[in-house]
């Protein structure tokens, strides 16, 4: 019996997260990672552009991060009381680097950070409603676990990612179109006095890459300020990958709260919630604070050591220069490749992130635009990339990432493999079975939600 078969006997589906069981790759077992590569149980080597949805910006098993974690493991264990020097150092650096952060609390995951952000916003404002945007993902908790990758007939109404969510919870979340300032202003005109928070990925990377317009980001800030609502930037993906100050440092729009995730520690399990001190003071980490905040693993010394080493390397070495240069090259040369092949495609992204949508231009601005993407070609060519030792996640609308460990030679191989994979997919007509290749939407519901 193979390891994958053994896994399916004792783990539901054989994997420990809902997007790890990939159609066509259900027997994939990972045995080793290093730099820009991973290896499977059959000894195959892959250049990894999926990269765990992006957090290892430095590459897998970065030696400086690994050394810092090894050092910390020899000195510190989990005590669950007081604070360590590493937690203080990390908080100080996050407050220094990220414009919105005056104070910060550490969590174990980005989902926890967004959960606490919304609970805080409701407590501070005394309001009920939360606004999110179609195509944005903010974690697994009920208030935001809806309308990520939705089928066309579910756009414009609540589309939960899971059953078991109460209709009352769904009804308290308003879902809007990304990059639509008019719709935003209209919902504030109608519901502004009851909107506790607006939460947004400044760049919705969970559907590839929708780049925000300056007008839209300004409107977010203006409407939240005018209504007294809390603006939350979910920078779990964009934080550190696009800039040490997050995308807010690039855009010049400063939210009230910012959530961060494993990318701040090159993939180690950590998250953070930071923002205005007057808001953060409501948490019960300050004696008497009315908003409960707890977590035994919060500030665990090993992920904290990984985060400190990651920040140090990002500050001292030309990481962003390297990955941005490679990103520009990939996007430019893929665009030329598709033009030469006569394949309608839009190659977009930002910095080290790239994605090819198989549809006519211009670049998409909202999830509605992405409904034109040729899912069969998108998924099909990525399945064939595996045969060339290249791994881009073969699920619809998923982005790809470059790391500090990737090289120009890796990009050369990526371009060659992409052309071969796309040609073969076109010749075959694309895969006929696309079941479970568009995830994060469409859960059946009996809750009566809209």
From TrEMBL:
Catalytically driven reaction(s): (S)-4-amino-5-oxopentanoate = 5-aminolevulinate
EC number of this enzyme: 5.4.3.8
Region spans: Disordered: 427-450
Start-end of Low complexity biased regions: 435-450
Name of the molecule in the record: glutamate-1-semialdehyde 2,1-aminomutase
InterPro entries tied to this protein: Aminotrans_3 (IPR005814), Aminotrans_3_PPA_site (IPR049704), PyrdxlP-dep_Trfase (IPR015424), PyrdxlP-dep_Trfase_major (IPR015421), PyrdxlP-dep_Trfase_small (IPR015422)
Keywords: Isomerase, Porphyrin biosynthesis, Pyridoxal phosphate
Pfam families per the UniProt record, alphabetical: Aminotran_3 (PF00202)
Cofactor dependency: pyridoxal 5'-phosphate
Organism annotation: Actinacidiphila reveromycinica
Top-level taxon of the source organism: Bacteria
Single GO MF annotation: glutamate-1-semialdehyde 2,1-aminomutase activity
Functional pathway: Porphyrin-containing compound metabolism; protoporphyrin-IX biosynthesis; 5-aminolevulinate from L-glutamyl-tRNA(Glu): step 2/2
Coiled coil: none
Similarity comment: family membership: Belongs to the class-III pyridoxal-phosphate-dependent aminotransferase family. HemL subfamily.
């Amino acid at each position: 019996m193979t390891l994958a078969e053994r896994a399916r006997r004792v783990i539901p589906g054989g994997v420990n997260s809902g997007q790890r069981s990939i159609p066509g790759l259900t027997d994939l077992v990972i045995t080793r990672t290093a730099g820009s590569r991973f290896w499977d149980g059959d000894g195959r080597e892959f250049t990894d552009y999926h990269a765990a949805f992006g957090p290892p910006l430095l590459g897998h098993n970065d030696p400086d991060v690994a050394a810092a974690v090894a050092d910390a493991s020899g000195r510190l264990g989990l005590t669950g009381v007081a604070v360590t020097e590493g937690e203080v150092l990390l908080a100080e650096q996050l407050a220094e680097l990220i414009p919105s952060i005056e104070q910060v609390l550490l969590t174990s995951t980005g989902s926890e950070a967004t959960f606490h952000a919304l609970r805080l916003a409701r407590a501070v404002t005394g309001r009920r409603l939360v606004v999110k945007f179609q195509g944005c993902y903010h974690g697994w908790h009920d208030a935001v676990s809806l309308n990520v990758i939705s089928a066309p007939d579910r756009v414009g109404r609540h589309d939960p990612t899971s059953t078991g969510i109460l209709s009352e919870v769904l009804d308290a979340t308003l879902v809007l179109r990304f990059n639509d300032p008019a719709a935003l202003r209209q919902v504030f005109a109608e519901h502004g006095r009851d909107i506790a928070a607006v939460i947004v990925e400044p760049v919705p990377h969970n559907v590839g890459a929708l780049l925000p317009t300056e007008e839209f980001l300004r409107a977010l800030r203006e409407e939240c300020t005018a209504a007294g609502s809390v603006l939350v930037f979910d920078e779990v993906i964009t934080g550190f990958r696009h800039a040490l100050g997050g995308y807010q440092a690039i855009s010049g729009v400063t939210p009230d709260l910012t959530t961060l995730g494993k990318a701040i520690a090159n993939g180690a399990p950590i998250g953070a919630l930071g923002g205005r001190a007057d808001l953060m003071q409501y948490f019960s980490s300050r004696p008497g604070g009315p908003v409960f905040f707890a977590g035994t693993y919060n500030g665990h010394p090993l992920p904290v050591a990984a985060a400190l080493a990651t920040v140090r390397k990002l500050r001292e070495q030309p990481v962003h220069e390297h990955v941005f240069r490679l990103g520009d090259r990939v996007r430019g040369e893929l665009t030329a490749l598709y033009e030469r092949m006569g394949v309608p495609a839009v190659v977009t992204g930002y910095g080290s992130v790239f994605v090819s949508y198989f549809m006519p231009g211009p670049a998409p601005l909202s999830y509605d635009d992405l409904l034109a993407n040729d899912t069969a070609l998108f998924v099909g060519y990525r399945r064939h990339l595996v045969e060339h030792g290249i791994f881009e996640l073969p699920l619809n609308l998923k982005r790809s990432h470059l790391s500090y460990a990737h090289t120009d030679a890796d990009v050369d191989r990526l371009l060659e493999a992409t052309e071969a994979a796309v040609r073969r997919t076109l010749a075959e007509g694309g895969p006929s079975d696309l079941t479970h290749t568009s995830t994060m939407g469409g859960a059946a519901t009996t809750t009566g939600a809209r």
